[in-house]
Amino acid sequence: MKKLFYITALLITLVSCQAQKKDGTELVSPTEFAHKVEAEKGQLIDVRTPGEYKSGYIDGAVNIHLYDKDFEQRIDKLDKEGTVYVYCKAGGRSAEAVEIMHEKGFKHIVELDGGMDAWNEAGEPVKK
């Protein structure tokens, strides 16, 4: 019975990963996020508040606060064909931002799993 449970859980995980890649979005670990940002040089967006951003951010990130009135107008100025990297503090706001971007037609979105909390925990570099 346990074996069946584990097999089912594995299949669900694989299917959900395939679905993310299928619709142009990826949820990646801090290490993978850092490698992708370095290798692909896409658009890096921090959707936290300006205060959170000033406390430490990923080098090269532009702060576009998710709850600002002009959030959608500002992301409309981004290249929808190019890769966009998105993060927040823990993952909730970036997931919202990814959904909005997906609805607006962005082709490839990479989200930092666990946000800055996970980034800091992984020991990745932070700018201030």
UniProtKB/TrEMBL annotation:
PROSITE patterns: PROKAR_LIPOPROTEIN, RHODANESE_3. Keywords: Signal. Residues 38-128 form the Rhodanese domain. Residues 1-21 form the signal peptide. Gene3D superfamilies: Rhodanese-like domain. This is Rhodanese domain-containing protein. It comes from Flavobacterium beibuense F44-8. The lineage of its organism: Bacteria, Pseudomonadati, Bacteroidota, Flavobacteriia, Flavobacteriales.
